[in-house]
Amino acid sequence: MKPFHHLFCLTFREGGGVVQKHERDQLLLTAIDSYGDYLLRLIYAIIKDEKKAEDIVQEVFIRYYLNLEKFEGRSSVKTYLYRIAVNECHNYFKSWAYRKMEISNLFGHLLVNKDTPEKKILQKESDDHIVKMIEGLPLKYREVIWLHYYSELTVTEIGSVLNCPVNTVKTRLARGREMARIALEEGNDYA
Amino acid sequence: MHEHLRKSLDQSIPEKVTLKDEQKQAILAEAHRRLENGAPSRKPALKPLVTAIAVVGIAGFLGMPYIQNEIGEQAIEESTPADVLRKVSIPGENLGTLITAIYVDETKEIIYSDGKRIIAFDTESNTKEILIDGDANISGYEVVANESWIVWKQEDIEGYFVLNRSNGEIRNIPDELHDMQIAGDQLIYTSVSWGDVWLTKLDLTTLEQTRLYDKLQKQFGHEAVGEGKLVLWDPYTEIDPIQVSFSVYDLQTNQEIGSFVFPYESVYNLTVSENRVFAGLYNEGDEMTTLGYVDLSDGQFYTVETPDFVSYAVYRDVLALSTPEKSSNTVELYKIKNNKAHALPTLNHIQERLVRPRFTPEGKLVVNVEGAGFYSLYVVDANKLD
């Protein structure tokens, strides 16, 4: 991103010119093409609610669009997008909507002990021992493993995304891997 | 196994969870709506005039250093010969398809997958050639290539494919393959079948397979190839707070050259360069990652004095570091002299953020651009740096 981009954005905000808007749209669409699927799938993996994941990913890209002028040439778009996404996931877990869903799931499970077709599909699709082990980890270990191995963020980028020291990320990553490996050895099944 | 784990995680998410075109358009429409709603409303005539003057003034003031910067950038670009530093832009592509792009020195091509096809972009003529038009998805992470061979895996199709580029012949090898690396006419990969997990070598000219190493005995064992050598290590000993050991083999003879140690708890990105094995190293609680190497000729461990970095790539004495810059990072070049990294100005004028430094076996550094030029890469010839 060239420094002149800042000037385009400034004039766009004041004047609403066609060229500047086109450039802004192009940057958004490029970011969506580059990160859209990865972000949506990551968010889904964390919160397991497709509709909510779509809402969150929309919010992530709109915030990027509205804050484009804050980006300097070497700012990390990727880190910014993931940071908003993870924060939105954390907010979702704290929300009443999520807790209400948890409670209704609990009652639903007690009342009807029968897997829905969707649940069966989900079960089939997660029929991978490594993934099962990772899914069993506490959120703080699970999210660093997903961010590192799936989203391919470096430990520094994860530190920036989660707003915590790099060494905390390293420790969580190492512990998470170790915990998954212990489960793996207990399961005695790799291939 | 990193790629294997990434794939397993990906497969745990239903395929239908992707952003559809109509959702992308909905995001754009909502973004427009919010931007317009957030725009300042019309005020009496004098205020816009004052604002406009202020904006022009501020823009001019802010623009001056950038204009100077642009002029400086142009000057540096002119003073850097094109055979040392080249920017390659591939219109229609993006960071997602180019992050795994492979530069082939001999043919000056960039080879990448756009998801369905494997494409060669000729950096001399700026033309694209479709090498493989797949029946199924092809991930860029599951493509390796050089001037003689393309090897790739197609989603949901058994085995993997080998294209002999000299005669156009395609062969299907019925083996489950992970973590491919290519070295000349040899393919090194992890083969998984019937509960066996073996590090395997395939001679691409004869298709003869050789089992090198039982990976189940050392779960998640990692490997790196380079300079005709194979390096094996086990990153999961990193919890053991002593050291990480690794073994080096000759790729031609399969004979072990020796076993060595890095005196650190954790290592990553082992890289063979000449007669040295480099690694990023850290102990729990370290603020900085250390760059170090073991010299195979004397078996001794040495550290390289560097600025703080988050990732590295090395070719002989040329070092590319992703170094922190404000809240982000970008790639800078260095020359190693007397085990100290000395900064080179080659990339300093580039305003874009550079990511994922990697060297070709012949010494070309390739970095992707993240930012407005998502579809661009820079190629630097490390052999021509002073």
TrEMBL record, chain B:
It comes from the Bacteria. This is DUF5050 domain-containing protein. It comes from Sporosarcina highlanderae. The lineage of its organism: Bacteria, Bacillati, Bacillota, Bacilli, Bacillales.
